[in-house]
Design brief:
Blueprint (H helix, E strand, L loop, with lengths): L10 E2 L4 E6 L2 E6 L3 E2 L9 E6 L4 H13 L3 E4 L10 H13 L5 E6 L3 H7 L7 E3 L3 H9 L5 E5 L5 H13 L7 H8 L9
Parallel strand pairs: 5-6, 5-7, 7-9, 8-9
Antiparallel strand pairs: 1-2, 2-3, 3-4
Helix pairs in contact: 1-5, 2-3, 4-5
Bound molecules: D-ribose (RB5).
The site of D-ribose (RB5) has 8 residues, from helix 3.
Length: 192
């Protein structure tokens, strides 16, 4: 029995196995031997991060993400006290790159500064979206792994639609794949 990795409420009583989280995947099984083949469960983790201006929208997005069946990994900030948006853009990018989250939703006043910070990391494609259409296309064409929203410019209901579209849309692949690969190329300029 491998019950020590989860509180009692997380144990599966009929099997005596534990609900264990490894990386961003939840499964029933033993942390030493891996998932039970017949009881594999997974809950995708979505990271959320915001500065003080984005904080109220982040709270709403976390609620939406949970309602859609994802686990929300809240990286802060946790109130409206003034903070620096790059710190939270970096935190979200790192959570996606190190596998703690599959995707992230980030918010600042405009969505601009926090997405600029997140996009400093190769492999991160943070898309500043203003509605469900841009969110959907950021997944379909650009394989965006972070949705950036501006709390001072995008209404709550529009933001809810955007996060739903973002999480529901797969990458289109095909002609888009080589273009996305080019985004991730590091470019350097010759000194003139
Ligand atoms: C904070 O006042 C504001 O500058 C920030 O939230 C964001 O809009 C920056 O891009």
């Amino acid at each position: 029995m491998c019950l020590r990795f989860g509180p009692q409420s997380q144990c599966a009583p009929t099997t005596g196995r534990a609900l264990v989280r490894r990386c961003h995947i939840w499964y029933v099984g033993c942390p030493e031997t891996g998932p039970d083949k017949t009881h594999t469960m997974s809950k995708t983790v979505i990271a959320l991060a915001a500065d003080h201006a984005g904080f109220p929208l982040k709270e709403i997005m976390a609620e939406e993400v949970r309602a859609l069946g994802y686990e929300a990994l809240d990286l802060g900030t946790h109130d409206t006290a003034s903070v620096d948006y790059p710190d939270f853009g970096h935190a979200a990018a790192e959570a996606v790159l190190d596998g703690r989250a599959e995707k992230a939703v980030i918010c600042c006043g405009t969505g601009l500064g926090i997405s600029m910070a997140a996009n400093k990391y190769p492999g991160i494609r943070a898309a500043l979206c203003h509605d469900a259409t841009t969110a959907r296309l950021s997944r379909e064409h650009n394989d965006a792994n972070i949705l950036a929203l501006g709390a001072r410019v995008t209404g709550t209901e529009v933001a809810r639609d955007a996060v739903r579209a973002f999480l529901a849309t797969p990458f289109g692949g095909a002609r888009h794949a080589p273009r996305v690969a080019k985004i991730d190329q590091i470019r350097t300029r010759e000194a003139v």
